[in-house]
Write a structure and sequence with these properties.
Layout lengths: L24 H5 L4 H18 L2 H13 L4 E7 L4 E4 L4 E4 L6 H6 L3 E3 L1 H7 L12 E8 L8 E8 L6 H21 L7 H4 L7 H16 L1 E10 L4 E5 L7 E3 L5 H9 L1 E5 L10 H4 L6 E7 L4 E10 L7 H22 L8 H19 L4 H16 L1 E10 L4 E4 L9 E4 L3 H9 L3 E3 L11 H6 L6 E7 L5 E10 L7 H43 L5 H16 L3 E8 L4 E9 L7 H9 L3 E3 L1 H8 L1 H6 L17 E3 L9 H6 L18 E8 L5 E9 L5 H29 L1 H9 L2 H4 L13 H8 L12 H13 L2 H4 L4 H14 L8 H18 L7 H13 L9 H6 L3 H5 L5 H13 L13 H17 L5 H13 L8 H16 L7 H24 L16 H23 L4 H33 L3 H35 L15 H7 L3 H6 L17 H8 L14
Antiparallel strand pairs: 1-2, 1-6, 2-3, 4-5, 5-6, 7-8, 7-12, 8-9, 10-11, 10-22, 11-12, 13-14, 13-18, 14-15, 16-17, 17-18, 19-20, 19-24, 21-23, 23-24
Helix pairs in contact: 2-3, 2-6, 8-11, 8-12, 11-12, 11-16, 12-13, 12-16, 13-16, 16-17, 16-22, 17-22, 22-23, 26-29, 29-30, 29-36, 30-34, 33-34, 34-36, 35-36, 35-38, 36-38, 38-39
Keywords: cGMP, Hydrolase, Metal-binding
Organism: Trichomonas vaginalis (strain ATCC PRA-98 / G3)
InterPro entries: GAF, GAF-like_dom_sf, HD/PDEase_dom, PDEase, PDEase_catalytic_dom, PDEase_catalytic_dom_sf
Length: 1180
């Protein structure tokens, strides 16, 4: 045990805290107030520790409480497993000490003197003797490892009572929460660290790497060197007296960083293309590699591998390691070379250790009022300077301010453009002034007032981790009388890196304290908030968010996901200058967004931004998010982050930093509820750069805003129901009862209806939300269903809301698909003129069936439901399982008066329309596809088809709906392809489940890993869809245009399939390394073999089409038997691909439809046989 002092040190007088203000008698007189006393006591400790040391605070404030001066704070030194007392400058081994039990058990321990005599603890008589009773209080931070203990000793004639013990336990709990604010991780006393300087490479490596490992929480620290004369690479090992040579091709990531002089920061080493498992080790570890050029002969790099917590290295780690690397590498280099070559070795390592000490000290200080004097004191010590002043930039006033400067009683404030420090602040230049009085920028007034003589000045910028200049340190006069040199500049530049980070941390800490107070207020308010004060609370939230960020303005938007609109709920300060542009981007990306000035320019003025200098990602330090390597040498000084970091390695005294541009930054935080639905956006405008840490604080406000908005929504739902709330958003009270006009907010402009909604180009994917309702309102209004069947806007809205809620969120058979099918059914009726052929009653039943035809579809086929024996499969076995279920859902929805679209019908009409709706929905079962198609073709080709027969009319309506159900194939190819992907995903979903249940695939299309998309579509088009559209086209010639679009899409799929086959053949040929001539012959043979089959297939299809259109006397609607057209035969005999490619479009891009029907003739012939229903023109 080290010898200690004979008495307690003389302590300085108490400044801000006074132990006399604590009523210690309260403990014994009022035991119930122990908790309040401890709170008061701990507050005093925290206050006093800020102006003195934590040792002094604890000893001073606990002494009167326990009536003893024998109070000692012991720091635990993990590397030596000992305790260290800064007061007595002594060590105490943990093993066998009186402190061991409290340390091991992590609890307050009372040791009476009798126990001490029995156990024979090791002890230091200067602190306590064998006749003392001892109370030991461990200080355990949240990490769970004891960092320090407090030893309190009293004479054995006195005793610790229960109050003393309870206070000790409460203090232990307090220390757990606030330990990191009171005590540094390691004592800064050099006697405790005891890092002895040695020129031995293993010892130097072990010492330096140990410091780096601890500071960066790295599992492994390595030093690498590249000799420029022969490009040889060496690696320093702790067990080797000399560096070990490494072959260049075996040097891994570090070798690449040395050769190309780049910083490499990898989240996972194995992701780097230069990763070598033999030299780089565990590829799942993170890695940070920073090179530096010490001289022309050698290039060094420090490699940190496997950060412990957090698991990845940050940009801040890069920044600080860049500043430390030259000093650490010089220490290692000095240990390798003879001392005669580098006599300043001791100074290198001493400065390196000093920098790390300062880094640890500054990182533990979060009170900016204490941090600034500490920075100034450490700076003077580091450079052996007489004085130091620290100026901070005030962006709001464009002034440089300091609350304290050596030799000046009060703080200074000067314009940012004036003086030596002003030039450093605005340009980033490091200014080394050898004679201050000869420099015209120097202000002599302070010297005159203080009587101090300024000789030399070193002015260095402080840069934060965002690369912004936030202040300047001005060093004045070296004590030695010498000038500041290049080593001083390097040291000060590195020192200021830590200053910048610490100042930012202190600001964030203060902001977090403010935020904590505000959130406490919010929490209290949220529990007692009144219904009529929610809007006021929202205003309070955005006001506090604005103040926390120091923003110039804040706006709260409410977002409507149905029509993707924004409404300003409230705003504070500067309003939304740029509209909703940035809020829209945040909603689109569904994430918090920080828009820097360049981002704002790009969004607002894209054309102008594209003409500006186009920098790649490697040109901007701040733009690197996923790129792992970055050049150190700057390409555009003053613009790139490389210019900032290269300054750390440069010996120049005029290194430049980017210009200071005071421009706006915009932050957008989406407000999201528990279901991940976006409710709104908080947008703030700031006059300076915002960092991710700021956003984290703002998200707290966003959470509260989301809760209040959600509560307001739920309140409305509770009072009126969700459908009522949504309906009130889209129509007025008067509009609800209308049967003649669509609500104004649901009207689609006429040009959009004409050029999009009622065309083949309609894309249901782009009309999500209220858009689908708008489309269906337009369709019902077009057919005049509202007025004919007395359907109010309110009833139709409620019906749509109810039926939409029954559609499940499956990939394909969902509400989008229902709207898509309904639109295509309407489109077919419109382009063919069938609205003049079918009655309104028939059309009404068809459109309602289309809306309901897949309600509550689970995304699985009928055969799966039967084989898997799902409840539906069991219930509807031997039936159309899903289609029967869809019918039951439709019946369920329209059994309620508020959603019954059929309420105006009489009993006979009611029975008839349900019969039709059910028939239509059941007809969509693909298992009946070929049966229905064959029956239709047999009737039509047999010449028996007539619109005078009810069953024939229904059969044609089947065809219209079934074409709508598979209409994706007849959309423009881009749309058809997108729908194909969606359908495939639903098939794959079923296939994955079949595999998980041990079932065989019910269809080859369900196999995710072996699907040939193009080939499957060729089969589907050829055997399923094309015959259906051909049949519809021969009965209704105007619908032939859809068949031609199917042929056009089929030709694309065939071309894609052929290209895939060519690629496969080429790959096989390359793998077998066959001569080119053999490949050519094989290709020709393949083409010759395939060609006849293709021609035969085309001829068969064409012959079938021709026979279907002329044989049997089948009557086309309103046209009768068609005479043979030789020109048409010639066109049909062309290759299918040619027919598809010759599809003609009008000026709007729609297929040209040739309507060749005599509707009046058909109506005249069949009018006597058509039943009349509401909405039908009886005069016809």
């Amino acid at each position: 045990m080290n010898s200690g002092r004979s008495m307690l040190p003389v302590l300085p007088p108490l400044n801000n805290a006074n132990p006399s203000t604590i009523d210690y008698k309260t403990v014994s007189e009022n035991p119930d107030k122990v908790v309040d006393l401890v709170d008061q006591l701990f507050d005093q400790i925290m206050e006093l520790a800020q102006v003195n040391t934590v040792v002094y605070a604890i000893q001073t404030l606990l002494a009167p409480l326990y009536n003893t001066k024998k109070i000692t704070l012991w720091h635990y030194i993990e590397s030596h497993n000992t305790f260290f007392s800064q007061t007595y400058k002594i060590h105490e081994a943990v093993e066998g000490s009186i402190l061991q039990e409290a340390f091991t058990e992590k609890k307050v321990v009372y040791i009476p003197y009798e126990k001490r005599n029995q156990k024979k603890y090791t002890q230091n008589e200067n602190i306590s003797c064998e006749q003392d009773n001892v109370l030991v209080i461990p200080m355990v931070p949240r990490t769970g490892t004891v960092g320090a203990v407090i030893e309190i000793a009293i004479d054995h004639h006195k005793v610790f009572n229960t109050d003393h013990y309870q206070i000790a336990q409460l203090l232990m709990s307090k220390f757990k929460s606030y330990y990191s604010y009171l005590i540094d991780e390691d004592p800064l006393d050099n006697e405790a660290i005891q890092l002895l300087v040695s020129t031995s490479l293993p010892e130097t490596y072990k010492r330096i790497s140990g410091l780096l490992s601890k500071f960066y929480a790295a599992r492994v620290v390595e030093f690498w060197m590249l000799r420029t004369r022969d490009n040889s690479i060496l690696k320093v090992f702790d067990e080797s007296e000399n560096p070990t040579n490494v072959e260049q091709d075996m040097a891994g990531i570090a070798g690449y960083a040395l050769e190309h002089f780049v910083v490499i920061n990898e989240r996972y080493m194995k992701n780097n293309k230069n990763y070598n498992s033999q030299v780089d080790g565990n590829g799942d570890y993170s890695m940070l590699c920073v090179p530096c050029q010490l001289d022309d002969a050698r290039r060094w790099a420090i490699v940190l591998r496997g950060r412990v917590s957090p698991p990845h290295y940050s940009r801040c780690d890069e920044h600080t390691l860049l500043s430390l690397t030259p000093f650490a590498c010089k220490s290692i280099s000095a240990a390798i070379l003879p001392p005669s070559e580098l006599p300043q070795f001791d100074d290198f390592e001493t400065r390196f250790q000093a920098l790390l000490e300062i880094a640890m000290t500054l990182s533990g200080q979060l009170d900016i009022d204490n941090l600034i004097p500490m920075i100034m004191s450490r700076a003077c010590s580091l450079l052996n300077a007489q004085r130091c002043s620290l100026f901070l930039i005030d962006r709001a006033t464009n002034m440089l301010t300091t609350r304290f400067a050596n030799g000046v009683d009060k703080g200074l404030q000067i314009p940012i453009t004036q003086g030596i420090v002003g030039q450093t602040a605005t340009t980033g230049a490091i200014l080394n002034i050898p004679d201050a009085y000869s420099d015209p920028r120097f202000n002599k007034q302070i010297d005159i007032e203080t009587g101090f003589r300024t000789n030399t000045i070193l002015s260095v910028p402080i840069v934060n981790n965002r690369g912004e200049i936030i202040g300047v340190t001005e060093m004045i006069n070296k004590k030695s009388g010498l000038l500041f040199d290049d080593e001083d500049i390097r040291m000060m530049t590195a020192f200021n890196v830590f200053c910048g980070i610490s100042l930012d941390n202190a600001k964030l800490y203060q902001a977090s304290l403010d935020l904590s107070k505000q959130l406490t207020i919010f929490t209290e308010m949220s529990s007692a908030i009144k219904e009529d004060s929610s809007d006021q609370t929202l205003k309070s939230i955005i006001m506090n968010a604005k103040n926390t960020l120091g923003a110039s303005g804040a706006v709260l938007y409410i977002y409507n996901s149905d029509d993707k609109s924004f409404q300003v709920k409230d705003q504070v300060g500067k309003g939304a200058t740029y509209g909703t542009t940035f809020a829209e981007k945040a909603v689109q990306d569904r994430e918090d967004k920080i828009f820097q000035p360049d981002d704002i320019d790009n969004l607002l003025f894209p054309a102008q931004s594209n003409n500006n200098s186009k920098l790649g990602k490697d040109d901007s330090y701040d733009s690197f998010d996923s790129i792992s390597s970055r050049p150190i040498t700057p390409t555009k000084p003053g613009k790139t982050g490389s210019a900032r970091v290269s300054m750390l390695l440069s010996t120049a005294t005029t290194a430049q930093l980017p210009d200071v541009n005071i421009r706006e930054t915009i932050v957008c935080i989406p407000l999201v509820n528990n279901e991940n639905t976006i409710l709104g956006v908080i947008q703030l405008t700031c006059p300076w750069t915002v960092i991710p840490e700021d956003v984290k604080m703002l998200k707290s406000y966003a959470v509260f805003a989301s809760l209040i908005i959600e509560r307001q929504n739920l309140k409305g739902i509770a009072e009126f129901g969700q459908d009522e709330v949504e309906m009130n958003t889209w129509m007025t009270k008067e509009e609800k009862h209308s049967m003649t006009e669509i609500p104004s907010k649901l009207i689609i402009p006429e040009d959009v209806l004409k050029n999009n909604v009622f065309t083949i180009k309609f894309n249901s994917l782009e009309w999500d939300g209220i858009g689908h309702f708008k489309v269906l309102f337009a369709i019902f209004h077009y057919f005049d269903f509202f007025q004919i069947y007395k359907i109010t806007n309110e009833k139709f809205f409620r019906f749509l809301y109810a039926i939409r809620s029954m559609y499940k969120k499956v990939p394909y058979h969902n509400w989008r698909h229902a709207v898509d099918v309904t639109q295509f059914v309407t489109y077919q009726i419109m382009i063919s003129g069938l609205e003049k052929v079918f009655t309104k009653f028939e059309l009404f039943s068809l459109v309602v069936a289309a809306i309901c035809h897949d309600a509550n579809h689970d995304g699985f086929t009928n055969i799966y439901n039967v084989k898997a024996e799902t409840p539906l499969g069991i219930l509807y076995k031997n039936q159309s399982v899903m289609e029967t279920h869809h019918c039951s859902i439709a019946i369920q929805i329209m059994s309620h008066e508020e959603t019954n679209l059929l309420a105006a019908l009489n009993q006979d009409e009611y029975i008839e329309i349900w019969s039709l709706i059910i028939q239509y929905i059941l007809a969509t079962d693909m298992a009946r596809h070929f049966e229905i198609l064959k029956r239709f073709n047999d009737i039509y080709d047999g010449g028996d088809f007539t619109m005078q027969r009810h069953d024939h009319r229904v059969m044609l309506l089947y065809m219209i709906l079934k074409c709508g159900d598979i209409s994706n194939v007849s959309r423009p190819f881009e749309l058809a392809d997108r729908w194909c992907d969606v359908l495939c995903e639903e098939f794959f979903r079923q296939g994955d489940l079949e595999q998980a249940q041990g079932m065989a695939y019910t269809s080859d299309l369900n196999d995710r890993s072996h699907l040939d998309k193009a080939k499957s579509q060729i089969g589907f088009y050829t055997y399923v869809t094309l015959p259906m559209f051909q049949a519809a086209g021969k009965a209704v010639p105007a619908l032939d245009v859809n068949m031609r679009q199917v042929l056009s899409n089929l030709s694309v799929w065939k071309r894609k399939h052929a290209e895939e086959l060519e690629l496969q053949k080429a790959a096989l040929a390359a793998a077998s390394d066959k001569p080119k001539t053999n490949q050519t012959q094989q290709q020709q043979q393949t083409n010759n073999t395939n060609q006849p089959a293709t021609n035969n297939n085309n001829n068969n299809n064409n012959n079938k089409s021709e026979n279907n259109s002329t044989s049997g006397g089948g009557t086309k609607l309103g046209q009768g038997p068609a005479p043979k057209d030789n020109n048409k035969d010639n066109k049909e005999n062309k290759d299918e691909d040619t027919i598809g490619e010759e599809l003609l479009l009008d000026e709007n891009g729609d297929p040209i439809v040739d309507v060749k029907m005599s509707i009046s003739t058909l109506l005249r012939e069949s009018s006597e046989h058509i039943k009349c229903y509401p909405g039908d023109d009886k005069k016809k």
